Structure of Aromatic-L-amino-acid decarboxylase:
Amino acid sequence: MGSLNDFDLPINDNISSNVNNPMDPEEFRRQGHMMIDFIADYYKNIEKYPVLSQVEPGYLKKRLPKSAPYYPESIETILNDVQDHIVPGITHWQSPNYYAYFPSSGSIAGFLGEMLATGFNVVGFNWMSSPAATELESIVMDWLGDMLRLPKSFLFSGNGGGVLQGTTCEAILCTLVAARDRTLNKIGKDNIGKLSVYCSDQTHCAFKKAAQIAGINMNNFRVIPTTLSSSFSMSPELLRKTIVADLEAGLVPTFLLATVGTTSTTAVDPLGPLCNVAKDYGMWVHVDAAYAGSVCICPEFRHFIDGVEGANSFSFNAHKWFFTTLDCCCLWVRDPAALTKSLTTDPEYLKNKATESKQVVDYKDWQIALSRRFRSLKLWLVLRSYGVEKLRGFLRSHVKMAKMFEGFLVADDRFEIVVPRNFATVCFRLSPSAISTKPVLYEINGTRRSSGGAEKALTVNEINAKLMDSINGSGRIYMTHSVVDGIFLLRFAVGASLTEESHVVTAWKVVKEHADAILSRYNTCEFGPGQ
Amino acid sequence: MGSLNDFDLPINDNISSNVNNPMDPEEFRRQGHMMIDFIADYYKNIEKYPVLSQVEPGYLKKRLPKSAPYYPESIETILNDVQDHIVPGITHWQSPNYYAYFPSSGSIAGFLGEMLATGFNVVGFNWMSSPAATELESIVMDWLGDMLRLPKSFLFSGNGGGVLQGTTCEAILCTLVAARDRTLNKIGKDNIGKLSVYCSDQTHCAFKKAAQIAGINMNNFRVIPTTLSSSFSMSPELLRKTIVADLEAGLVPTFLLATVGTTSTTAVDPLGPLCNVAKDYGMWVHVDAAYAGSVCICPEFRHFIDGVEGANSFSFNAHKWFFTTLDCCCLWVRDPAALTKSLTTDPEYLKNKATESKQVVDYKDWQIALSRRFRSLKLWLVLRSYGVEKLRGFLRSHVKMAKMFEGFLVADDRFEIVVPRNFATVCFRLSPSAISTKPVLYEINGTRRSSGGAEKALTVNEINAKLMDSINGSGRIYMTHSVVDGIFLLRFAVGASLTEESHVVTAWKVVKEHADAILSRYNTCEFGPGQ
């Protein structure tokens, strides 16, 4: 492998433009077919790998050279290295045994759409730069809005409109900035320090970050507490109380983030009542349905977004649980002008007759970045390849598998469901009643400790954490956790596209085996091996 | 094509989880090979299409159904529609006859890297979520920083570090927020209205937008004027004067954006002297080398970023002129802690032992979004497939072709080079001396108008705009314009990966033919056809 030491060598000015072309179509074809086979084989063999990567920090630095090669390397060599050095460091989100975080559900159609977008490689910042990129996006967003039965006012056909963002974080930032500027235009730009914004203690951390980026005074970032008894849903009464107190303190309530399907427990905020409160104070409401939005294309789930007609904007991630590879966040707004007022740029080098005609959408003015990929292709391919019928079928099959897993838990009285399941994510733990109330001796880092009695709550959490680590360490399945109202829970999120019922049956076996081992270790006075 | 009218049909609860799997490996293989052939054929035939799409606003709505299909459609049907309905609405950025804006240079390696990233489809927000995604990114950013001879302090190996953002807009926003918070931590959060930021009138519009998003008071957004006589480069003296005046007015100078290769004319700001000024006032300097950064891997171009050692951060777009498909912006910072202080989130559901060990990078804290694609794969494939040698060769071949085009212009005294060429973009126009100084009658929208005399400057711009529209309307090549110091100029940006010398020769013929026609129409008293 070469080095950079030739940096000061004389320059060869006779370099011909006939160096092998980096986009030669026939070479593209040859290497492209190889890569398709590589990835198809990866999916075929994916269950052979531990789901959660088992490498140690710094593993890759030891395996790769210190600098870029000076001379070209063949695709064969590179693919060998991918197999030998990259695959071991992958946590296999596409594995059928992946139940962590939320799914990152791929599909053939999503993959092909991404290929097409990469192949055209247009920079669709405005209509002019590639009309199909803009027009397909508008069309697909109306299709999808229709599938979700969003209010007409969120669709282009009703003077609203949809846009594809990369992530929910960006969707939140854009709508927050629009809301911020709408308010500041009324009360004066100098009053940015007075704006207050609202969410619950279950809201995704993306909102806090967006507020920080947008220059909101973090002393005015209001977090409404939720409780297990109300399934972690935001209380409209508590929201109103908080707003009233803020108004009395001279603040200007500006923005509410409501969630349908929170990250920890897939809790659902009551959109209708919350929007009514926000309306009384002229606030912008954004609905973050990042995870659960997709399943609302099924009539039996649509009620979870009832009340969205009172909101100003709504988003969900097609890359989460809608078979559209990362990244693809669908955002609809009732008033596109509020977005574009804050986000429009108009430099000379982008001026063109189509924009001047005002007949076209220029999506650069609906998002943070100027450049944008042709993301609508993958969404279009997903909608067409599967159709509404199959998409509902896929989503329902995930819900059915989650129900099945829930059934296994319910039938085993050592486990408990921590919060009622809304979608395809089950939140559970080893029940306190399954864990001895007698003080139990165990050893951590060589120190003998005792559980039980006053320490019991802590112990239940500790034991559940141990159960999760033990399961994930096996590499057979992968789950993640959360802590709500002081309770450590395990999340079993069904949604990886390759997952079938047999995988869920196996997953339950894995959970049970590790639970058996953990309970037998910590529910007796015998010492297990050091932790 | 089905409709949504069945929304209220009874739900079939017996749906089996054995619906065809959307990721079936063998079906993936079959469809993947088809798509590779489709795209290879697209590249093979790309010169048959008009470079600039010639469709009218709303063309696609007329061709596509009003709603998503209810039943699945075959990939064959979809690909036919891509060919018939999407391709006509594409502006072919990958065409060898594309010279507009800046290149969006694809490559086989970049494409394959994107395929791999899409295939793994991991969400690499932190180390734990897929260690290879984080580690490869850190390694590749050090490789590339080394290739650019960035100061060691920008590399992980020197306690700085690099991160892949989607776009320069995001890189600017992140560094601006870091700089903003660094200053506010000293002077108090309530003083956000006092912060002032600096750029030139040639700086990309992304900076203004970032400042707006970050809550900077736009009354304190300072734009240093530049002139043709100094090739549109920012004056350190003028910068200092502006800063001093702002300090006297009670403002707090916070951030300077310097550019290497501006969008209009590829002007270069003098980094060394500008950083010296900024240093005197404790400001953050970000260097935006979005376009020109890549060519600085060639020793003969490296001097353009001399002085970068005085900056706080540096970015360039590998997706512009570095064969790495959209999106891939490389950002290095000297002080990662300044970034992560502003952008870190730490929710319970993402807590993990690797993060707690502080042995790992969690890139979510270096960017706006939480989710992130495995972008380093494509950059790694580009570096390895071509190596430093070929990459320099590709870039030099583009510069050589731009020089050749410049030579054609210089040899034809009807044209003039508006600003000296720095890289592979030539800024030119029909020279005022080539346009009759006698009043010339011509017709616009049926109204007879006269050029020449006092109106001459306007006429020169108008005639050059007509030249550009005429060329682009032909579909044979595509160029875009800018206006600097009142001068309308055409930009000929070489960099599409398929472009070879023969294309540039053809491009020159096209320009000449259209110039002949335009001049013969407007430089006589004969009326051409209506405009």
